[in-house]
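Quick one, tokens below. Sequence please?
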């Protein structure tokens, strides 16, 4: 797929959107998990804080001590990340995990029983989550105020969050892959109407259909309707153009027919050279009219059609053999009767007429027509036993308006018209040497696919 592909753009946009969404979701879930872990940690610290305060007692020497230490063994391991500390007017009690350090509690003025949550720097320079409470001890413990605090290393929260993110990443990757597959399927289904339009346009272009139709989703149907309206307008324009060309041709052919009668009268007055000159001019004009008629007929494009070349060749040969050039020749029509060619019968008549007339004009004794079909399509050949055409001049003969024999009849447009008609049907015309001498004009018509 190229960079200009709509499919590629949609897939890239979808992939980027999915990756951004999953990244945001991953970050959001990690933050939510961290907050959840921190709330659980605060709840755990509250339990430890209650145990620390409840464990205070007085010795026989009236000294305040921590008689019942919290059960968590981390309080007994130096710098374990879990600490407790009690500040009294007499001394500072602390967990073994603090070793010889001390928590620098903030000098907040707390009410009796008030809990304060904050952060501070620990004994190893780490950030601690601290839960602090100020209480007034009962009379049996001296009735003095104390500040008790428990602290947890925030690195433990971050470690739990990192482990959660590591466990979450594979699931996000699988989810992303699934979403990308779903995006590909969505893009494929969404672009399917465009593929259907392309196929319908191809059918219209190849002549297998005349309109796109309305069998499309509601979002695409207006586009198909506009294209069909454009096709209808084009057909109307071509119809008008063909009608004008036909009117022009009719207007020209009638005077040319009258001119043919005048030529005979001039020749009867013993003005042969003058009559021949006028006849050549009239023939050239007739060729130009035929050319424009053929072009007007092909302007609207072609629609699927077939014909039997053997029948067309029989009609064309029947006309040409009655002309002065064709009457003395031997005609052989060897085109199989069951051969079918993918071309309109009138168009093939125009093509074979030009080729057969040229063959009759240059043949010495005979003209032959053959036809075959293979996997490549249909091939029709018109052979004559005349002098042929040098290989370096064949291209010139096929060029528009070019003639090999400047003294002969015709305007040189017959082969050009034949090429235009064959090109409209996807075919081609080639000139080769005929076996035994002469010229072989070969028509190739490919069989349409589908």
């Amino acid at each position: 797929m190229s960079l200009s592909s709509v499919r590629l753009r949609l897939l890239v946009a979808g992939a980027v959107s999915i990756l951004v969404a999953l990244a945001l979701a991953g970050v959001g879930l990690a933050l939510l998990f961290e907050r959840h872990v921190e709330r659980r940690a605060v709840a755990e610290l509250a339990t430890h804080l209650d145990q620390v305060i409840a464990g205070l007692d007085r010795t026989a020497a009236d000294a305040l001590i921590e008689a019942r230490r919290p059960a968590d063994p981390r309080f007994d391991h130096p710098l374990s990340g879990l600490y407790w500390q009690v500040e009294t007017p007499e001394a500072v009690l602390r967990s073994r995990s603090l070793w010889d350090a001390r928590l620098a509690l903030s000098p907040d003025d707390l009410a009796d029983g008030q809990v304060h949550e904050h952060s501070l720097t620990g004994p190893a320079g780490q950030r601690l989550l601290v839960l602090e409470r100020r209480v007034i001890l009962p009379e049996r413990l001296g009735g003095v105020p104390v500040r008790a605090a428990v602290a947890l290393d925030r690195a433990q929260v971050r470690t739990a969050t990192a482990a959660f993110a590591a466990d979450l990443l594979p699931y996000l990757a699988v989810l992303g892959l699934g979403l990308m597959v779903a995006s590909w399927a969505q893009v494929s289904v969404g672009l399917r109407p465009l593929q259907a339009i392309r196929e319908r346009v191809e059918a219209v272009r190849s002549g297998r259909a005349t309109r796109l139709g309305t069998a499309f989703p509601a979002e695409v149907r207006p586009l198909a309707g506009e294209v069909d309206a454009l096709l209808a307008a084009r057909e109307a324009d071509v119809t008008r153009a063909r009608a004008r060309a036909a009117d022009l041709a009719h207007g020209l052919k009638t005077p040319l027919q009258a001119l043919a009668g005048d030529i005979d009268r001039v020749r009867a007055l013993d003005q042969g050279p003058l009559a021949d000159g006028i006849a050549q001019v009239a023939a050239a004009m007739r060729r130009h009219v035929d050319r424009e008629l053929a072009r007007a007929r092909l302007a609207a494009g072609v629609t699927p059609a077939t014909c039997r070349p053997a029948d067309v060749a029989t009609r064309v040969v029947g006309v040409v053999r009655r002309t002065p050039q064709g009457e003395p020749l031997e005609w052989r029509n060897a085109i199989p009767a069951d051969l079918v060619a993918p071309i309109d019968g009138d168009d093939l008549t125009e093509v074979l007429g030009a080729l057969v007339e040229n063959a009759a004009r240059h043949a010495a004794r005979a003209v032959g027509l053959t036809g075959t079909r293979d996997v490549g399509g249909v091939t029709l050949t018109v052979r004559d036993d005349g002098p042929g055409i040098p290989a370096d001049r064949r291209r010139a003969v096929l060029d528009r308006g070019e003639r090999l024999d400047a003294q002969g009849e015709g305007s040189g447009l017959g082969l050009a018209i034949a090429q235009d008609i064959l090109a409209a049907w996807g075919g081609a015309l080639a000139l080769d040497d005929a076996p035994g001498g002469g010229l072989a004009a070969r028509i190739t018509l490919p069989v349409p696919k589908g």
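The first helix runs from residue 6 to 54. DSSP finds eight helices and twelve strands in the chain.
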